[in-house]
Specification:
Helix content is 33%, strand content 23%. It has a domain of 140 residues: P-loop containing nucleotide triphosphate hydrolases (Rossmann fold), CATH 3.40.50. A 6-stranded mixed β-sheet has the order 6-7-8-3-9-10, with helices on both faces. It is globular and about 45 Å long. α2 packs parallel to α5 and α3 runs antiparallel to α5. The protein contains 8 helices and 10 strands. Bound molecules: adenosine-5'-triphosphate and magnesium ion (MG). The site of magnesium ion has 5 residues, from α1.
């Protein structure tokens, strides 16, 4: 059987010593697939991303990437491991130009191959970034900043991408472009962990899904368990009468 790219084993994590936000979470992400994580506001989805990325250390359990523990890794080292994160909040440098935001991660990594071509590609894909490439990133609109986050990932071509609420603040057309883009990421072999409040879209594009409720995985299964006859919990959130 194929090994997962990422696996969380019995992870308990939180911000305060005596309060656990995530409790005994087990989760896997495979290469070339979108894995969806859905849950109500405050369920702990972003906390899970922060725990994977090293902003929070698991109190119990471990996070493995390609079979190796990430527990001792610092957040800034993740890019070197082939892991990118598009957080719910911005990861941009607001006072640096669009171009510098795009190129900073590759310029500081001498071994990165083929980035020049990918840089040209993203400027074609996101004309607004091309137009505003000399402007400070902080001067872009929220939606434009999201496009910049995606453009950065495209240039880096990581093996694993963690994406937290990508469609927030985007017009429906750009949001859809971003979802199509994420699918493209996986066609190139990337593994994606996707969180988004557009539950239907997450279900539609994920091969496997996890439901997080009050910090615990309350349901999980392949897409077939969530499409058509949507999972009961999801139906309830979407306000579907049955
Ligand atoms: N920096 C923090 N310090 C203390 N508690 C926090 C912090 N960030 C989040 N929490 C708490 O952790 C819990 C989970 O929050 P989290 O942001 O992970 O939820 P979420 O599922 O991502 O929600 P949303 O859908 O609203 O983004 C909440 O109770 C929240 O109040
Ligand atoms: Mg969140």
């Amino acid at each position: 059987m194929t090994e997962p790219l990422l696996s969380l084993k019995n992870v308990t994590s939180g911000y305060a010593k005596d309060i656990d936000v995530l409790v005994d979470v087990n989760l896997e992400v495979f290469a070339g697939q979108v894995t969806g994580l859905i849950g109500l506001n405050g369920a702990g989805k972003s906390t899970l991303i922060k725990t994977i990325c090293g902003f929070l250390k698991p109190k119990i359990g471990e996070v493995f990437y390609r079979g190796k523990s990430l527990n001792a890794i610092q957040a800034h080292e993740l890019i070197d491991y082939g892991i990118s994160c598009i957080p719910q909040e911005s990861s941009l440098f607001p006072f640096l130009s669009v171009q510098d935001n795009l190129l900073l991660p590759v310029r500081s990594r001498k071994s990165m191959q083929g980035w020049q071509q990918r840089y040209e590609e993203v400027l074609e894909l996101f004309p607004i970034l091309k137009l505003k490439r000399n402007q400070a990133a902080g001067e872009l609109s929220g939606g434009q900043q999201k496009q910049l986050e995606f453009a950065k990932v495209w240039i880096l071509q990581p093996q694993l991408c963690l994406v937290d609420e990508p469609s927030i603040g985007l017009s429906p057309k750009i949001a859809e472009e971003i979802f199509i883009w994420l699918e493209k990421f996986t066609q190139n072999g990337m593994g994606v962990l996707l969180i988004d409040h557009n539950v239907r879209r997450v279900v539609q594009m994920s091969q496997f899904l996890y439901v997080l409720s009050l910090g615990k995985i309350s349901a999980s299964g392949p897409q077939s368990q969530f499409t058509g006859d949507l999972h009961e919990q999801v139906k309830e959130w979407l306000g579907i009468n049955f």
